[in-house]
Amino acid sequence: MTLSELKKSVMDVVGEDADSPTYWTASTDSEITRLIQDAIEESCCLSPINVEEFTIPLYAERTHYRLNPPSGGLLSLKSVRVMPEGYSLTMTDPTKLTRNDYNWMTTTGTPCSFYMIGLDTLRPVPYPADSTHYLEVIASVSPNIPSRDDEVIDLDPNMSSVAIAYASYMLLLSMRRLDKADFWFRRYMELSQISSVEGSKMVYRPIKLKGVVDATQ
Amino acid sequence: MLLSDSLTKIRKIIRDTNANIISDNSLIRIWNEVQKLLVIQTGILRGYISLPVPPTTSYTYTQSWEGDYTGKPSSIIYDFLFPYTYTQPWESSILVNTTTSINGGYTNSYGWESYYVTVQNRVRHYFPDDFNNITYVAYDEKPIQTVFRGEVERGNTSFKSKEGVYPSLYIDSSSSGVFYLYPKVTDTLTLSPLDSEYGEVCYDEDGVLDFSSDYGVVTFMTTEALDSDYGVLCHYLDTENTIYLEYERSATEYTESSETIDLPEWCVKYVECGVLGRVFGNETDIFDKTLSAHFNSRFEVGIEVINKTMSSLKAMRTYKLEPSEAPARSRRLADLPSHYPSLWR
Questions:
Q1: Nearest CA to B142 among B161, B169, B179?
Q2: Residues with Cβ within 8 Å of residue A214, at least 6 apart in sequence
Q3: ipTM value of the model?
Q4: Which residues of A touch B12 (CB under 8 A)?
Q5: In angstroms, what is the C-alpha Rg of chain A?
Q6: In angstroms, rounded to a whole number, what is the distance separating the alpha carbons of residues B249 and B46?
Q7: What are the pLDDT digits (tens) for B314-327?
Q8: Is the pTM higher than 0.90?
Q9: Which of A69, A155, B43, B49 might form a disulfide with B248, Cβ 3.0–4.6 angstroms?
Q10: Are A155 and A37 in contact, with CB atoms under 8 Å apart?
């Protein structure tokens, strides 16, 4: 599904003529694009479906490495391997490293474990003594939506329904059509992994959006 | 992502693109407040830094009002209830006439002074300006622990001047941004003796200062002529003989919409939800209680999503925490030779 088709689906929901839009034209539909991006990002946070592989060169004596996936923000790590040997690094943390080896900060060699500082900095342990290795990282990332309308959004097919529901809900809410916005919001919650079922870890409080009744109802 | 992009999106949702209801400055203020709340509740921003030992200082002051005209204070001399300021602890006793004379000692105003003389007061170190909480700390490339006042003071009347080689990090007050190394570390650097040739302080590891290759903190010469060999001195720090700190940091506070947002892009929408919750709850023409509650609820869920994402980054750990309940006792007996007597058959 292309970005243009997604936008048209959203326009159909909010009552715009998708083929000859009067308001959501090319100069104003960036809002729809941003809302679609938000929905996809949130879905990727909840179920890591957008996986990307990238490499990071290791340099002699350097201890910290910034992870910058080409397409978007890093969400979770699936696998980190040191190449060319190809074995996986185990994730650890400073507490465990200290228990195992008090001098872990000064040990050099081919990395065999790592830990993360925040969301985007990786520290291999031991840190490399030479510049002959690189890391192959497989991670779940939040994708960047293409900016051109004719580009295909290459994601899970369910993602398009999630994106349409979310963008529709936000646009209807901004137009103060709150009953309809409420409907599409609940649909978005059902399609994504955010549920209003009691006992679910993430629960939206069941707040009924009250506003001016839509004249067409 | 620019802050202006986020503000534009918020304005389109509240239908106030011309800033008739809420000004940009108000929106930015709310944005900063919500962002701070999100960062504190999730600890999403982390930093790491090497802090010099002894601590470098740029200036100090004796009167507390001077702090309003300076940046971050480097050292605070005692300032008590009187209009006077004093540097020696015994001076306050003289002022209140509890005694006529007391033999004092040295006190330091700059951290490095404590490494030349034994000072009465402790050497203050400062956390970075954006510091929130410690996650890991090391000194001289070895992990150190954090200690608290109770552990330090218990039966230890000279804890302020105690010296040693393997310190712990002692935080007197979590809100002060100040910490100490306890015991004080003094025997780490070979310091060159001060003489008229040196302005501030310089140090060299082998005790011989060579200006063609040795640069410490800041050096300047009263007699040596500056030439093309001298430029801007950079303070290079590695982790040897320094404090290495990993910490949760606070986010940048923005003043202009043209600034770049510090947070990961996928977190920005949760801040926007928090801002919308505040905006719809403000006393304006767009006040709407249900919309405010709705977006506040989305902000709270966003915090859960961020915490879930951060915990998933630790999901690759190869060890796991033990359950709280005691492990079931195995009834299997030890593998001892059969002629050994068994005590619990």
A1: B169
A2: A177, A179, A180
A3: 0.80
A4: 31, 174
A5: 23
A6: 5
A7: 766 554 455 555 55
A8: no
A9: B43
A10: no
